[in-house]
Design brief:
Number of domains: 2
Largest sheet: 9 strands, mixed
Strand order of the largest sheet: 2-1-17-16-14-3-12-13-15
CATH superfamily of the largest domain: QueA-like
Radius of gyration: 21 Å
Oligomer: single chain
CATH class of the largest domain: Alpha Beta
CATH topology of the largest domain: QueA-like
Helix content: 10-25%
Shape: globular
């Protein structure tokens, strides 16, 4: 990551396979924490539960309470040909956008059958990106996927999980994500309690993580990448608390790139207000040069190359500091990606 900060090649790097975490730390808050201070470019290695030492009374910690659904399904065409289905988003009651593999076999107008019972869906449309629109009606999809669906793990996690809750934050509440907001996986109930006892306010936003966040950037100029919309909710309570904290010169700390995108999507245009209530889609794509309006510090994981998440953290710090941090993390054998170690950028 040197040279032109908008050239895709600057966000490509190699991570040794043995550094890609295949399971979460146990306990969760025992993973390592790399602390990057933007003021002096210093790097310090701690344990994640030490995050309490970097928080102050009056800080506002924002977590994403989305919950991963069992979106991975197996199906068959009437011919018996096998299909793999990944549900992406419910467009309306009983109608879902989904990735279907192999796509060539998934033809508009045909009905597919799911393993595990008398479950069917009709392919009623095809999107510009190649995904399919599936009509499950009158089937109760929520009940159906809880019975036969699997947790959709990232492709680089080869082992699977012993417990589906391993790929779920402890505060996951609102169902709708197909990927976990992984920066939040490091928190335990005990750690949350210690943070609150320090006088830190903990609040929640919702961004239902879809594949949009995780699709790699392929444009040579990263600014040409288009990110698909994801559903966000920032409540009036969260906005009010943020505005009061900012007036008091207290920090807003986002846990994860999804939380930071949620908050920066809820920016207020009114003088003296930093955030407003917001509910709806966001396709906010943050690249270097972006001026952050709400968030003062970020807790995040180590991200995959050429990802919008890596571009975002490079915008929050700066590309040279992220390059320095990732080189340090590789040299010190940090664990990378969803089940890996964490980073605090202050």
């Amino acid at each position: 990551m040197t040279g032109d900060i908008f050239n895709l090649s600057q966000y490509d790097f190699k991570i040794p396979q043995d550094l890609i975490a295949q399971e979460p730390a146990n306990p969760r808050d025992s993973c390592r924490l790399l602390v990057l201070d933007r003021k002096d470019s210093s790097l310090n290695t701690r344990i994640f539960r030490d995050i309490v030492d970097y928080l102050r009374e009056g800080d506002v910690l924002i977590l994403n309470n989305t919950k991963v659904i069992r979106a991975k399904l197996k199906a068959n065409r009437s011919s018996g040909a096998k299909l793999e289905i990944l549900l992406l988003e419910e467009k309306k009651k009983g109608v879902w956008e989904a990735l279907v593999k192999p796509g060539k076999r998934a033809r508009v107008g045909e009905t597919i059958n799911f393993s595990g019972g008398d479950y069917k869906a009709k392919i009623i449309d095809k999107t510009a990106s190649g995904s399919r629109i599936l009509d499950f009606r009158p089937l109760d999809v929520g009940d159906f996927i809880k019975k036969i669906g699997k947790v959709p793990l990232p492709h680089y996690i080869k082992k699977g999980v012993k417990d589906p809750d391993d790929y779920q934050t402890i505060y996951a509440k609102r169902e709708g994500a197909v990927a976990a907001p992984t920066a939040g996986l490091h928190f335990t109930p005990e750690l949350i309690k210690k943070i609150e006892e320090k006088g830190v306010k903990i609040l929640y936003v919702t961004l239902h993580c879809s594949l949009a966040t995780f699709r790699p950037v392929k444009c040579e100029d990263i600014r040409d990448h288009l990110i698909e919309s994801e559903r966000v909710e920032v409540t009036s309570l969260v906005a009010k608390t943020i505005n009061q904290a900012k007036k008091n010169q207290q920090r807003i700390i986002a846990v994860g790139t999804t939380a930071i995108r949620s908050l920066e999507s809820a920016v207020s245009s009114k003088r003296g207000f930093w955030a407003k209530a917001f509910s709806g889609p966001t396709n906010l794509y943050i690249t270097p040069g972006y001026k952050f309006k709400v968030v003062d510090a970020l807790i995040t994981n180590f991200h995959t190359p050429s990802s919008t998440n890596l571009v975002l953290v490079s915008a929050f710090a700066k590309p040279s500091l992220i390059r320095q941090s990732y080189t340090y993390a590789k040299d010190e054998k940090f664990r990378f990606y969803s089940f890996g170690d964490a980073m605090l950028i202050v």
